[in-house]
Amino acid sequence: MKSKAKYILIGSLLLAFLVIIFVQTNYHIQQNQNPITVKADTASEFKTIDLKNQIALLERELLIIKSKKINLPDQKNTELDNILVQLNSLQDQLDALREESDNLQDQPDNYSEIPIEEQIATEQQRTNEIVDFLSERFESEPTNNLNESLKQELEEVYVKNNMTSDPVIQQTQIQNFDCQTSLCRVEAHHDNPAAEQNFMMGLSQLNTFQNGEAFSQRIEKEDGSVETLSFISREGQRLPVIGPKMNDS
Amino acid sequence: MERLVLRKPLLNALALFSAFTLVLSSQIQAAEDRKVYPAAMCEGAQVGNPPIVSYQSNKLVNNSTTNSAVVICPILRDNIYTTSGANEAYVRYFKGTNTGFIANLYSYSSYGTSSYTQFKSDYGTTGYKLFSYTPISAYSQGFYNFVVVIPPGPTGAKSSIISYRLDEN
């Protein structure tokens, strides 16, 4: 009798496994093959579906456990207590997933509903935070006495010798340039975005900035010119990283 | 919710099975964020007219003997709201000459008003090469791309991009 119950239990487990694999596969196939019926901005919807799938899986497993429990004799065993802890932990996870799923459903899901002015203001606020952070780091570093030679390298190697001979690409004027031990700060005016791109590619050619990192704030003017403020880490240095503060919504 | 009281060792297997299923599920989804892109996805930024680059099924070649070609290689971002950025990235390329090969990784804000950049340049020997990038920050709903300078070279020593990869966090 015991042996029969064991076979029934193993059979049920295998069946549950097949059902789970089917649900997983069906979900991924539907996600990949049905782009027409999927909305354009569905990040939280996918997450909600994902959470619902996980909830369904956990519920199915709990139901199986409950149905088998009825026929099992009581045994005092430490391992069983451990299993009980694990199952209760699963129950807690299930409750947490339900709560997260409910929260996601309540959230406004479409970023495009936020006015563009507000989106840009948020972006600029974040950029200003990063600039302030890097400025503070820059100011706190010891001054480097190679500024003049670096500036000369910038002007001679790059600005006067653009990589391309395309006449559309005009000049870049360096308005302010300063280096400390690990960071450099460059303010520049570019006649057009192509000149800006050329300038950044040129920076990466300099020995001073080889394998370096940069952060650039850019302001596009009505005449097509671009003003940039860049912080660049010197060779062998990494750019300091500010913590995430921007709202993810 | 009612708490369960269970007494049967065979349920060990069930608990392990549950954990295995959850782990398997999360691994499947994490693997989907890894992508390798063919060089044919890159677009010319400064390639002249007529263009000096040619697209082949396995690479993007600069055919010029005198001018560098600048191309932009887009990256599809899946995890659009996160600010944790990209974990790692590669550019695979062939260097035909000793002239510098450059591939900078950009992480732009959602409206492109600011960017993080990682510079990579290679002035070394010829052959198949790989640029490897360290983690880079990101804006919520920003976007990534590579800007690559492919140097010119004589016949038989043409430089090219082969593929690139970026793994999101």
List keywords for this structure.
heterodimer, A: 249 residues, alpha+beta, 4 strands, 56% helix, B: 169 residues, mainly beta, 6-stranded antiparallel beta sheet, 1 helix
In this structure, how is the largest beta sheet of chain B organized?
Answer: 6 strands, antiparallel
Measured by residues with Cβ under 8 Å of the partner chain's Cβ, the largest interface is: A-B, 77 and 57 residues
- Strand tally of chain B: 12
Straight-line distance between termini of chain B: 35 Å
Mean pLDDT of chain B: 85
Give the structural class of chain A: alpha+beta
Helix fraction of chain B? Answer: 10-25%
The tally of strands of chain A reads 4
Strand content of chain B: 35-45%
Main beta sheet of chain A: 4 strands, antiparallel
The SSE string of chain B, one letter per element, is HEEEEEEEEEEEE
Distance between the termini of chain A: 57 Å
Q: How much is the radius of gyration of chain A in Å? A: 30 Å
Gyration radius from CA atoms of chain B, angstroms: 22 Å
| Strand arrangement, major sheet of chain A | 1-2-4-3
**What are the segments of chain A in which pLDDT stays under 50 over at least 5 consecutive residues?**
30-41, 160-168
Average pLDDT across residues of chain A? 75
- Overall geometry of chain A: elongated
What is the H/E string of chain A? HHHHHEEHEE
Write the layout of secondary structure elements.
The complex is a heterodimer of chains A (249) and B (169).
Chain A lengths: L1 H32 L9 H27 L8 H29 L9 H25 L6 H13 L12 E8 L3 E8 L2 H13 L7 E8 L5 E8 L16
Antiparallel strand pairs in A: 1-2, 2-4, 3-4
Helix pairs in contact in A: 1-2, 2-3, 5-6
Chain B lengths: L10 H21 L2 E5 L4 E4 L6 E4 L2 E4 L6 E7 L10 E10 L5 E8 L5 E5 L2 E2 L4 E7 L9 E8 L9 E9 L1
Antiparallel strand pairs in B: 1-12, 2-5, 3-4, 4-12, 5-11, 6-10, 6-12, 7-8, 7-9, 7-11
If you had to describe this structure to a student in words, what would you say it looks like?
- The complex is a heterodimer of chains A (249) and B (169).
- Chain A is α+β, with helices and mostly antiparallel strands and 249 residues long.
- Chain A is built from 6 helices and 4 strands.
- The longest helix of chain A has 32 residues, at 2-33.
- Chain A is elongated and about 85 Å long.
- Helix content of chain B is 12%, strand content 43%.
- Chain B has one helix spanning 11-31, and strands at residues 34-38, 43-46, 53-56, 59-62, 69-75, 86-95, 101-108, 114-118, 121-122, 127-133, 143-150, 160-168.
- In chain B, a hairpin with a 2-residue loop joins strand 3 (53-56) and strand 4.
- Chain B is elongated and about 45 Å long.
- Classes of the chains: A alpha+beta (249), B mainly beta (169).
- Chains A and B meet through helix 1, helix 2, helix 3, helix 4 and helix 6 of A and helix 1 and strand 8 of B.
- Strand 3 of chain A pairs antiparallel with strand 8 of chain B.
